[in-house]
Amino acid sequence: MPVTKSWTTLTHILLTIIIALATAARLLMSLTLHMWYPSSQVADDRLLMNQSFSTHFIDDNSDTLAKNQGYSFWVNFFSGIGLNADIAQFCIWMAASIVMGMAVWKIFHNAIFASFTYGYILWNPLAFENWLGLRMYRNSLYPPLIFFVMGLILLWLNAFTPLADSRDGRRKEVETEVPHHADEVMVASGLSTRLHIVLYAVTGIVMGLGMAELLLLKEDSLWLVPLYVFVLFYKLFLVMRHELEMGLRIMVIMVSLLPSIVTFGAVSINKAVNQRYFGVYLLNTRTEGELAGFTNRIYAIDSPDQNTTTWAPPSSLKAAIANSPTLRSDPKLIDALWHGGFAAPNMDLKPIRGDFLTWQIRIAVTHSSHGWKNEASVQRLFARVNAELDRAFATGKLKKTQKISLSPSLVPRSKHQILELVRPTAQAFRWNFDPRPEYTLSKNLNSTAESTANVLGLRKMGVNIADPNPEYCSFLTRDRAIRLASKVNHLYVWMHTVLLLLFALALVSSLCRLVLRKRAHWRFLSLGVLLMLYALAYCFSVTWFTQYIDNDYVTYFYATGSTGPLVDVALLLGVATLLLNWRLGRGESAERQRSGQHCNR
């Protein structure tokens, strides 16, 4: 026993040293490969940066609510507490790593596995990718925030309803009693029921805030809602199934509602703020509200000219205008729609590609007789237009397409067009394991241009405008950091291959134990499989959207930043299943040996 205890202590010391060194090196990487801000991207990076300024609430123009404001909350948070963008980005990755490592430790009580998880998340190559990790844009916040929320979800699910008896098998070897019930677990861990409830509530609140920020970051973040709802109901199922004293059960159920309440409340507050300043109870007015309703109705019009590149052909828009007296009453709007922006010089010669009608209609309204007076007036205008189009659909003057629609905001597709997505979907999913050749190393730097947009943006990031790309360490120059990031990416390709094989082995071992009528740990493997399928489904929806762009890197940018963390967590759950099944096998072997010795006596 003393030898075992000494070995455990030595292991923990070594792991602590390794973690400290890995963390310090990772911090140096963030300080060398800087976050970069392309102020020239008016509709993307600059738009989101402008939302973080106080002037956002007095500038009611077509760009003000064109996108969700979630990223501005993050920018204002880290700048408000005095961090620069590089340190803030490192901190969110470290927070995600700590939470995931804590989750693994709390569930499995395996220091080596927990330490591996910490390092695996902290050094994830997505953090060094040019657009997905280093660009001052919302997609760079998505991967670490998903890891952070997933770690909190695992901690939250494990509270009061332990997801695994990590000492299964080991219990029989050392002949110690392992607590199975929540009250026994709390006694064993030295936690009172009251403190346990408080920690559970705090975890739920932070989880709810993290999920709210994910929903507020991007317009398509609704894809995470089914996953979140499943987690909430799964927790209630675990609570009802677990052996808890009735009073404690009721308390846990009540506290289990906190994440959903916090998420709903935070999203509602954002909408209420927009209602207060802009007159619209919406997160944005490009993919929500009446303007979005107009573009969705255009996509739904049956037209032989509609295809996966041209979502809103001129013929569909002409049909809509013919059936809308409100649109016909504003020739300037029609002229700007047809000859300005993305349709210039003439939409008949240059049809609008993909979802760019959502931007084109905003340009048209700005140059119309109505003008972009404010968000509320534009919503009222297109409420009338949409009512007219709905009457035309109802009377048969407008015919709805019979093609399949994944979402009203995406182009409808025929069965053949859907089958075209099989290969790009598989490719997008494969990038979660091997992102080559799309993975792009850092190649952009902050500009020293003295334009107002650039200066204000860099100042908000906490960057020294005179020296926006400093090198702090002579031994880790930018070139060396880029080479190291390249090696890390190659290492993770091999690691993903190994982890995928272990995931498959976990599946096989669980099936074998099932056939042999032996106990197997299916819970984590099932969650892992569900996360994989969920990621695959999102890859499918992304390729549905990005096919018109015909650029693999853009598809990679949209898909991998969102699905990569889910796949990585799934792989870790597969490894966990394998470890638990192995422990079960060891326990059964030890039990057989003891039984044999007893019989020999």
Which structural traits does this protein have?
601 residues; mainly alpha; 24 helices; membrane; transmembrane helix
Please characterize this protein's 3D structure.
Keywords: Membrane, Transmembrane, Transmembrane helix. The chain crosses the membrane at residues 12-37, 73-96, 103-121, 141-161, 197-216, 222-238, 250-269, 491-512, 524-546, 566-584. The longest helix is centred in the C-terminal third of the chain and has 49 residues, at 552-600. Helix 6 (138-158) runs parallel beside helix 24 (552-600) and helix 9 packs parallel to helix 12. The chain is an all-alpha fold. It is built from 24 helices and no strands. The model is unreliable at 166-185 (pLDDT under 50). The protein has two domains: 2-280 and 430-593, no CATH class; 289-408, no CATH class. The two termini are 26 Å apart.
